[in-house]
Write a structure and sequence with these properties.
Blueprint (H helix, E strand, L loop, with lengths): L1 H18 L16 E5 L6 H15 L7 E5 L6 H7 L8 E5 L2 H7 L10 E17 L7 H10 L5 E5 L5 H12 L8 E5 L2 H9 L5 E5 L4 H5 L3 E6 L25 E9 L4 H16 L1 H9 L9 H21 L5
Parallel strand pairs: 1-2, 1-3, 5-6, 5-7
Antiparallel strand pairs: 3-9, 4-7, 4-8, 4-9
Amino acid sequence: MQTRTTKVLAAAAALVWIAMPAAAPAASAWVPDQPVEIVVGTSAGSGSDTTARWMQRWLREKKLVEAPLNVNNRPGGGGTIALTYLNQHAGNGHYIMVSSPSILTNFITGRTPLKYTDTTPLAQIGAESVVFSVRAESPLRTAKDLAARLKADPGSLSFSIGVAAGSHNHIAVAEVAKAVGADIRKLKVVAFSGSADGLAALLGGHIDVAASPASGVLAHVRAGRLRILAVSAEQRMTGELASVPTWTELGIRAVAANWRSVIGPKGLSEQQVAYWDDVLGRLAKLPEWRQDLEAKAVEPTYLNSRDTRRRMDAEHAQLTAVLTELGLLK
């Protein structure tokens, strides 16, 4: 009788288990159930905007995200307008943003009270070294010409930088000027709402030199409109930038790169973070994605959400020291 009772209980338990909803184990998983916004804090054509549109294309075409994907440009305030907008959607995984080191420098320099810790870092997906470009007809033929001009009269040249004072583009210019003995307080630096706007000013003859990511410059170089003098990289780049000297090899220590990271608003759940970890990790492995990066001289530097936070922690401390040393803190 005891054996039969045991069998009945076991059978009943099995029936209960079978009757449970099949999706129960996945109930804690999160997937977008409404359109996803990829927020960009710069104007169309900038490095961050280009990255966002690559993401939109491949996430859509490879069906890594089933929900509709829209790019939302909200330039202004050195990226603070977009960051403020992002955090108006706290806890909502349907909003992500392509960010750059400005998310760190804007807080350090006092442009915004929002710190990177007020967001949810999701991934680092690439990095672009800063290139120095001039018009094809510029009298500055080489990087040495630019260095000599800065040393003689740092206020005689105007530089365009993307987004805001204190950005990696700005740091690169300041490091070159400092290395040649120029007074960085005399530099003429104009911050645009995106690197594309700065390049437009350069092409129009309103700016002498553009310090920007290479991604927006290469098409103009191919067309013969611009010339790249130097790149702020540790070592020579490959591909189309292979012939461009680094400042370092010219004896000028200036190394700076614009990384592209994806962040979410503050308060995302573990399930939402896990979803984007999986999606962005798979995106980083796509051959088509890596080809896009290579074509635009972007180094693939994928980091998951945890390691992106660690990288931001470390770089926040480094940038605070660099910006203080260069006198760029207000």
